[in-house]
Write a structure and sequence with these properties.
Strand content: 5-15%
Largest sheet: 3 strands, antiparallel
CATH class: Mainly Alpha
Helix content: 40-55%
Strand order of the largest sheet: 1-2-3
Number of strands: 8
Radius of gyration: 21 Å
Order of helices and strands: EEEHHHHHEEHHHHHHEEEHHHH
Shape: globular
């Protein structure tokens, strides 16, 4: 007689609770013991319908709603929407405003990646890296508060420029942050990057090769960790990125650890970009006073940028009225999440936490 133990498949819900599943995400897991046989992400618990709300508001009134999609990178939401409207209007943006926007977007990328580092550590049971990451993030939020008075949802970009000029002391404080951040990153490496427990939990876990990542439409650090050097700042340059020196960070291991390393190294590249932009900042006027009634000519446009999570795009259709006729938001978190089931299969339930965390999704833009 066979002494093999037979088990039955079990279906469980992981989530939806916040912040354990990085927002109100439900994963329907089919298990054989601790091994994941299938996964179905169940989204929609946070749905706010911003694409439909755009049709009911003027072009200017919709800017604050872009902050509420990826709320850990609100400047990026501002940037892609304002850029799309500027394409429709044929608006020229002053050189100074372009440099200011780049500084804000790269500081925002650093702040977002710091949240990733901290929460990824927390997912795997480490508290101290979370405290370190949020300590540095506070310095960036202080800079944002200096610029626009807000610390989470900024409403700073405007068609043709920004809402306010850089305040007195911003240059010095930003330079001081760059120096401090460069000094602090080796602490992260000593504490977390080379940690034996962290390496066991992430190396070889949640692998997805370049071909599959491309076929799923993945983008951002999650794609570049599979060895694909696709970065919109280089592939389709916008603003003044073509005038700045930085590297596109890639890794070939395709696993959770690779996705972590890519984001850590992108922080270093963003610091380089911010430093260059500060040094190259031209004189001029960046502040614009936007009319409350903006009527782009009839037409359609797609504008995309490299957000902290990947390709963030806005597809706009204008019928010549003061309100968008249609808006579609291309959210990288939503697209990247589609690859999660393939990455989870045959891993343990405990690995599901690491794999989900390594994608760095934000449910605000998944559900939109």
């Amino acid at each position: 007689m066979s002494s093999q133990i037979k088990t039955e498949e079990l279906q469980i819900s992981m989530g939806p609770q916040h912040p354990s599943t990085h927002g109100v995400l439900r994963l329907i897991l089919t298990l054989d013991g601790e091994v994941v046989l299938n996964c179905v992400p169940d989204v929609g618990y946070l749905h706010r319908g911003i694409e439909k709300l755009a049709e009911m508001r003027s072009y200017v009134q919709f800017i604050p709603l872009t902050d509420r999609t990826d709320y850990l990178a609100s400047m990026m939401g501002n940037a892609v929407y304002v850029g799309a409207v500027e394409k429709l209007l044929g608006t020229e943006v002053s050189e100074r405003a372009q440099f200011i926007r780049v500084i804000m977007m790269e500081l925002q990328r650093i702040a977002s990646h710091l949240v990733f580092v901290g929460t990824f550590a927390l997912d795997l049971g480490a508290t101290t890296p979370f405290l370190y990451a949020f300590r540095e993030r506070e310095d960036i939020l202080d800079l944002f508060e200096m610029v626009c008075g807000a610390r989470l949802t900024y409403n700073y970009f405007r068609f043709g420029g920004v809402s306010r000029e850089l305040p007195t002391g911003f240059y010095e404080k930003t330079k001081a942050f760059i120096k401090k951040m460069r000094e602090r990153q080796p602490e992260y490496d000593r504490l977390f990057t080379g940690n034996e427990i962290f390496l066991v939990r992430t190396r070889g876990i949640g692998r997805i090769n370049a071909e599959d990542a491309i076929n799923y439409g993945m983008s951002g650090p999650s794609l570049r960790a599979s060895g694909v050097a696709y970065d919109i700042r280089r592939a389709d340059p916008y603003s003044v990125y073509d005038r700045l020196d930085f590297d596109v960070i890639t890794h070939n291991d395709c696993d959770c650890y690779a996705r972590y390393l890519v984001r850590c190294n992108e922080i270093r590249e963003s610091l380089k970009i911010v430093e260059q932009a500060l040094d190259m900042m031209p004189e001029g006027n960046a502040k614009v006073k936007t009319s409350l009634v903006v009527k782009p000519p009839a037409g359609e446009v797609y504008h995309h940028i490299e957000s902290a999570r990947g390709e963030l795009g806005a597809y706009l259709i204008s019928d010549g009225s003061p309100k968008p006729f249609r808006l579609h938001w291309r959210a990288p978190s939503f697209v990247n999440l589609a690859a999660l089931p393939q990455m989870l299969i045959r891993h343990k339930v405990a690995d599901a936490v690491a794999i989900l965390g390594s994608l760095d999704i934000v449910l605000g833009e998944v559900d939109r």
